[in-house]
Amino acid sequence: MIDVITQKPLKVDIAEGAPSLLILPESQLEQVKTLLDTNQVRYWVHEEYLSTDGEPEVPFINISRNSDPHLVQRLLDSAGR
User: What residue segments make up the domains of the chain, in order of their start?
Assistant: First the structure.
């Protein structure tokens, strides 16, 4: 799946010992949630949005430690471009 703002693939930030993180444009949040729900991936969306380097605030999703972040990346990669 391509980030509609950067035009680059969405990437799961896989962190050792912490939940993996996915930062994405708000306009793609529902699409990604549907993809994760359909594939029974456990996750949660933070209530507060994140802003870095003066960029617009964006939602971020934590992938449950019980879910495979590499599977999530494959799902994103295989979702429409």
Answer: 12-78
Please give the pLDDT value at position 43.
96
Instruction: Return contacts of 11-18, CB within 8 angstroms, 24+ apart.
Output: 11/73, 11/76, 12/63, 12/69, 12/70, 12/72, 12/73, 12/76, 14/69, 14/70, 14/73
**Dihedral of alpha carbons 69, 75, 77, 81, sign:** negative
CATH 3.30.70 fits 12-78, yes or no: yes
Task: Tell me the pLDDT of the chain averaged across its residues.
Answer: 91
pLDDT value at residue 56: 81
